[in-house]
Specification:
- About 25% of the residues lie in helices and about 20% in strands.
- By secondary structure, it is α+β, with helices and mostly antiparallel strands.
- Strands 1-2-3-5-6-7-8-17-12-11-10-15 form a 12-stranded antiparallel sheet.
- α8 packs parallel to α11.
- The N and C termini lie far apart (about 60 Å).
- GO terms for molecular function: hydrolase activity, acting on glycosyl bonds.
- It comes from Streptomyces halstedii.
- Its EC number is 3.2.1.-.
- This is GH92 family glycosyl hydrolase.
Length: about 800
């Protein structure tokens, strides 16, 4: 790294002073934790850098709850067509090529999605095209984490070049102070074509008379470079517009396209394509504006964005950030917004590290879904045209990592933010109607990306309804999802995008309905065994939803389909050590796909048979029977979390055991409750919490997957976990905090008390629900839908008598 310029220290000192002056979250020392004192300013415990290493793929930049704008760094490791991580920022990559306006939290496809319009404060003259700087050797800058500050809603960074940036955002807009050395050329680069995945087209227009820079980028391509999806997603589906205004005149302007530089120009256009490396290097367009900083080294920029139009971007900016608003003003408002959101769970007690891990997890879990509608309610539809939110819907949301989120994040959203959940449900239904009735399993902005497998939309909306969410067209949505699950679609016979991005959302449905399993040799899916298990979970959820709607005939049909997992459970499949009974893929003729190994991914999606065999949360009793009874199943589960010598194996890396970095098995620690050994859930969850999660950049086990892994931690810390999609039943574990209050916006709060909670009291000795003793390791739907209290008596050793009676096991 080059020597740090004296101006750098000055810039960062000024930025830090602004943070302190604003008394923003993270800028002061959190108060000491007391068991009887609930947190009132949770932003004091949020560290946005948690998960920015170790493959967590979080980003540290400025964003508000469910915000459209997420202003965060795009780093580089020496290739302008790639970054250090899936979402543009990796803690170990300390070279920057811009501060991009949009990001997606924790997605796993590298280089992920979005990262639109990197804005780069550059010290020096522009003498060549930045697009031609393919190694990021010239138009990028090093930085040190010592010069980086990240708090909810605000991000500050000093660069080794002597420039610095201080950013704060509203929902759809932002304001920045850029500082430059007074004795060197000062420029801002707008790299309009350089989204993380590339772009089809981009444009920039510099208006010197009005001190404005406007433009857009046509892009998309989520997972477009994924090897197992081919080129299926190398396509555009959204255009992001921006409008930036400045507090001072431009001293110079210029644009570029590919390798051609045009000093003095005010217009340019051109995309990069969606390839990577040499196939894309040197392509793209952008522009720059220069400033005279000899007497004033600070440049203030206000910027708004929209997925609908240039006018929308300008209106969003005008309505959300006042012309005279400073970074400090916007950051204070952002901090208050995050405090309001995070106060949906107020915990008491616990040390500072526990609180930091908890509230940062809650912060990451409540980042999404993300707004894509403008202030006037207009949004881009999945049909490529602009739509208006209808009466009763406050906003259109997107970014649905369904295969991941339906297992934990969706339940947390429904529990804490039911109105947002309802608008999100309506948003997904709106998209489906604009998409010929097809509900895509991974929606990015207004694009159907087809990523992953199964039918997570059915599981998601059924869960919302079961947990009391009603502000969406639930009758219409149910009918649409039931139709998708029962009426074959031509896309279901396509192999486009397979295996990772198969176009069909219920692939080869006719065969599935006939055989009662997805046949590996004709399924047109990622893996027949995984598809069968995913569809069984979704169908069971639809059955529960139908039952709640009074549609009993449909309920019975879907409930029966929820048991079709049995058709891919092979009692004779073994691991070579005497253990038999595993989920295994089958061919159309009924034969089992061979060779078989529990550690193989053949027939599965991002997981092995050893993991997927446990993915039957809707029928744990049935799974236990198939394994020879509850005791035999519990013994099998013991081996899933432990090595043969009895030591723990919960950190991943073993194909035969628990993997905390990916979703198919994250519910497995809670299965002991239904197997009559709930103390093992308590000790297993505590082991995972203590060894896999924590503070610092490596504090997440793997991809946060739009808040899923963070939501898992939030539930674990509270001593609750959703039993199965389509249900409001909560399984009980041992809380980390002596007290917690969950705010229910339109009803009675949920109060959790565990006075003895600490590092050593990790077992439940007794429980009272609404003041009455309970010998059940679960709560029925009333706790979630009506509120109430759970009081835990914790101990430092297991109680093998509590909640173990067959009649009291989770149903």
């Amino acid at each position: 790294m080059p020597p740090r310029h004296p101006a750098l220290r000055t810039a960062v000192t000024r930025a830090a002073a602004v943070v302190l002056a604003g008394t923003l979250a993270g800028a002061v020392t959190p108060p000491a934790a007391q068991a009887d004192t609930l947190v009132t300013r949770p932003t004091a415990y949020v560290d946005p850098l948690i998960g920015s290493a170790n493959g967590g793929n979080t980003f540290p930049g400025a964003v508000l709850p469910y915000g459209m704008m997420a202003w965060s760094p795009t780093s580089t490791t020496g290739d302008q067509t790639g970054t250090g991580a899936a979402n543009g920022y990796e803690y170990g990559a300390t070279r920057l090529r811009g501060l991009s306006l949009t990001h997606v939290n924790g997605a796993g496809c590298n280089p992920g999605a979005a990262g639109d319009v990197p804005v780069m404060p550059f010290v020096g003259d522009i003498t060549s095209s930045p697009s031609a700087d393919t190694k990021d050797a010239v138009y990028a800058a090093d930085f040190s984490h010592d010069d980086e500050r990240a708090v909810p809603g605000r991000y500050t960074l000093g660069l080794a070049s002597g420039a610095s940036a201080d950013l704060a955002v509203s929902e759809r807009a932002g304001v920045a102070d850029f500082r430059f050395p007074a004795d060197k050329p000062a420029n801002l680069l707008f790299r309009v074509s350089n989204s993380l995945n590339g772009s089809e087209d981009a444009e920039i227009h510099i208006d010197t008379a009005h001190r404005k820079v406007t433009g857009s980028v046509l892009t998309g391509a989520f997972c477009g470079r994924r090897a197992n999806g081919g080129t299926n997603n190398r396509k555009s589906y959204y255009r992001l517009y921006f409008s930036a205004s400045f507090d001072r005149a431009f001293a110079s302007t210029g644009t570029w396209k590919d390798d051609t530089l045009a000093p003095g120009s005010i217009r340019a256009s051109g995309g990069e394509g969606y390839a990577t490396g040499a196939d894309r290097a040197g392509r793209g367009s952008g522009g720059w504006v220069g400033f005279d900083t000899s007497s004033d080294d600070d440049v203030r920029m206000r910027i708004g964005i929209s997925y609908v139009s240039q006018a929308g971007a300008e209106a969003n900016l005008r309505q959300e950030i006042a012309p005279g608003a400073s970074v400090d003003d916007v950051a204070r408002a952002g901090s208050r917004a995050w405090d309001r959101e995070l106060n949906s769970v107020r915990v008491g007690g616990g040390g500072e590290a526990r609180r930091t891990t908890f509230y940062t997890a809650l912060y990451h879990a409540l980042m999404q879904p993300n707004l894509i509608s403008d202030r006037d309610g207009r949004y881009p539809g999945m049909d490529g045209t602009a739509h208006q939110v209808t009466r009763g819907q406050k906003a259109q949301y997107s970014n649905f990592s369904g295969w991941d989120q339906y297992r934990a994040q969706i339940q947390l959203l429904a529990l804490l933010k039911p109105e947002i959940a309802g608008d999100f449900a309506q948003s997904l239904y709106n998209f489906a109607r604009q998409n010929g009735g097809v509900w895509d399993r991974w929606v990015h902005v207004n694009g159907a990306t087809h990523v992953m497998t199964g039918d997570p939309s059915a599981a998601t909306l059924a869960t919302f309804y079961a947990m009391g969410v009603r502000n969406f067209d639930y009758e219409g949505a149910f009918e649409s999802l039931a139709r998708q699950a029962t009426v074959p679609h031509p896309d279901g016979l396509s192999d486009a995008g397979c295996p990772g991005q198969c176009t069909g959302q219920r692939p080869n449905l006719a065969q599935y309905l006939d055989s009662h399993y997805a046949a590996q040799d004709v399924c047109h899916c990622w893996g027949g065994a995984a598809e069968t298990l995913e569809d069984a979970v979704a169908d069971a959820a639809l059955g529960r939803w139908a039952r709640l709607l009074g549609r009993d005939e449909e309920a019975a049909s879907f409930e029966e389909r929820g048991r079709w997992w049995r058709n891919v459970f092979n009692p004779g499949a073994g691991d070579g050590s005497g253990t038999t009974g595993y989920v295994q893929a089958r061919n159309l003729d009924g034969s089992w796909v061979t060779p078989f190994s529990p550690g193989s991914e053949n027939g599965f999606a991002q997981g092995t048979s050893a993991t997927y065999t446990w993915m039957v949360p809707q029928d744990v009793r049935g799974l236990a029977e198939a394994m020879g009874g509850r005791d035999a199943a519990a013994e099998r589960l013991d081996a899933f979390f432990h090595k043969p010598d009895g030591s723990w194996s919960v950190k991943g890396g073993d194909a035969l055991r628990y993997d905390p970095t990916n979703e198919p098995g994250i519910h497995a620690p809670w299965l002991y409750n239904a197997l009559g050994q709930p103390w093992k859930t308590q000790e297993t969850v505590r082991e995972i919490v203590d060894t896999v999660y924590g503070t610092g950049p490596r504090g997440l086990p793997g991809n946060d997957d739009l808040g899923t892994m963070s939501a898992w931690y939030v539930f674990a810390a509270l001593g609750l976990f959703p039993q199965t999609p389509g249900s409001a039943t909560m399984l009980l574990g041992a809380p980390l905090f002596p007290s917690a209050v969950l705010d229910r916006p339109h009803g009675k709060d949920i109060t959790l008390r565990a006075p003895a909670a600490d590092a050593t009291h990790s077992y439940i000795d007794a429980v009272r629900v609404d003041g009455r003793p309970s010998d059940r390791s679960w709560t029925d739907a009333r706790l979630v839908t009506r509120g109430g209290s759970v009081t835990y008596r914790l101990a430092d050793r297991p109680n093998p008598r509590w909640a173990t009676g067959p009649a009291n096991l989770p149903r």
